[in-house]
Amino acid sequence: MIPSAVVNQVEFIRFKVTWLIDDEVLLPEYALLRLRRELKRASLLLTDDDRERFNSLVQPPVATDLPTAHQWPSPPPAFVLHPPVGSCQLQAGDELSILGTMWGRGIESFGALVKLFDALGESGLFFGMGHGQLLSVEVYQADGSVQSVAGEKVNLGELPRQTLEWYLQQQPYSPRWQMQWLTPGRFLVGRRPMFRPSLDKIVPLIFRRIAGILACHCGIELENVGIQLPSLPNEGMSVGCHWRDWRCLDQEGRTVDLGGVLGTWEFDALDVESWLWVLQVGQLCNVGKGSPFGAGQYLLKPLDGT
């Protein structure tokens, strides 16, 4: 388990952004997983300074201390988006919301992210379609209620921050769990997709994803505080996952199918007791290629207990 002295230092905010849609648009399944391209297009509407802040959000600068820079030469973004899944037909006057998480020092750039979301509504949510007005930005408080962020200038001091210690304390107990993939998870090993992943192979990827966020944005190197991933069993796992292609990529004149893992795993709590916290925190981070923008999003469900 991760020490209390460590998780109490890790802060994050959970937010919800809502647009009021101006025109009719059909969003195909997983369309909102491609928001990196749409956000880049929207950034062209920003001032030069705000566009530079956006670039720093998506591609954070390398850490100034050499050990962290060596371990994480391509730092992950401080934000993680959790868009809704499934296709939807939006009409003028409908509302569309996207959830998200922002970590550690990255919270200082939340105002720049809000400006970008405003520009996204102006430029369109999907291939220049689905324009809308930024209706609200809300940040969740510890009790689950929301605090509205009004106006263009975000008062960072008033944002309700949560600690990782509090988050883990709120997780329910269950003797058995189900891990359900909400969006395709694309996991690469040696630059090759893992078409038939097992839980013992996925947990190290989730652990590394968490470690990267904490090192680059919270100033905590998990290895430096004695946290290492324990041995992972792969017995007693009920596996129901499959690979699904969900988009095509035009690459040098040829079409390449891109996909990821969907489905569920079920496992007993005793089998994963020492690393259950990895799966719990990973729900806030997503995992795999495209994870900052919603790919590799999963949910842990207690199958029994409270």
Overview of this structure, please?
With 306 residues, the chain is an alpha+beta fold. The chain folds into 2 domains: 4-164, no CATH class; 168-302, Alpha-Beta Plaits, CATH 3.30.70.1900. The protein is 25% helix and 30% strand. It has 8 helices and 14 strands. Strands 1, 3, 5, 6, 7 and 8 form a 6-stranded antiparallel sheet that branches. The protein has a 4-stranded antiparallel sheet with strand order 12-13-9-14, with helices on one face. Helix 2 (35-43) crosses helix 5 (110-123) and helix 3 packs across helix 5. The mean pLDDT is 86.
List the helices and strands and how they pair.
Blueprint: H1 4-7, E1 11-21, E2 25-27, H2 35-43, H3 48-58, H4 66-71, E3 79-82, E4 88-90, E5 95-103, H5 110-123, E6 132-140, E7 146-148, E8 162-163, H6 164-169, E9 176-185, E10 188-189, E11 192-193, H7 199-217, E12 238-251, E13 254-268, H8 276-282, E14 298-302
Antiparallel strand pairs: 1-5, 1-6, 1-8, 2-4, 3-5, 6-7, 9-13, 9-14, 10-11, 12-13
Helix pairs in contact: 2-5, 3-5, 7-8
Provide the descriptors you would attach to this structure in a database record.
8 helices, four-stranded antiparallel beta sheet, 306 residues, 2 domains, 25% helix, alpha+beta
Mean pLDDT: 86
* Silhouette: globular
Order of helices and strands: HEEHHHEEEHEEEHEEEHEEHE
The percent range for strand residues is: 25-35%
Short synopsis of the structure:
Helices cover 25% and strands 30% of the residues.
